[in-house]
Amino acid sequence: MSAGSAASRRTVLRGAAAAPVAGLALAACSAPGNGTSADPTPTSPVDLGAETEIAKGGAKLFRDHNVVVSRDASGALKAYSTICTHAGCAIDRLQKTTLTCPCHGSEFDAVTGKVVQSPATEPLHALPVTAKDGRIIAGPGA
To answer: Is residue 81 a contact partner of residue 64, using CB atoms and an 8 Å limit?
Structure first.
C-alpha cells in the first residue's frame, strides 16, 4: 500500500467516525418532535382558571396550553407563550417568576417575557389575555 492511499483511507475513516458526532451536535439544537416546533400560541381563546390564582408580582405556568400568566406590580395580567424562542422546546419549569427551558437552560422573566439567561436571544411571544367573569382567558379573541 502506498503512503498516498494509506493517508486517503485514514481521511475516509476519520470522516465516517465524525459523521455521527456531527449529527448529534445538530440534533441537540433542534426542536423536539422530529424537528418540528410546538405551536407558540393557542389558536383560540383558552380558559385558564380563576383570576384570583395569580397574585400581584406572581406567575402561573399552564403546561397543557404552553402559556404562562403573570400579574405585574400594578395588577395587570400578562400572558406569554412558553415555547422557547431558541429551539422551540416547551418550557416546563417556573420558579417564582423565572421560566427555565429544559432543552438548553434558557431563562425568561414571566412578567416581561424577556430573556434573562441565554442561549435564547429573543423574548417570549406575548399573548392577548383578559379577565372575564373572574376567569383568565388567553389567546386570540381574549
So the answer is: no
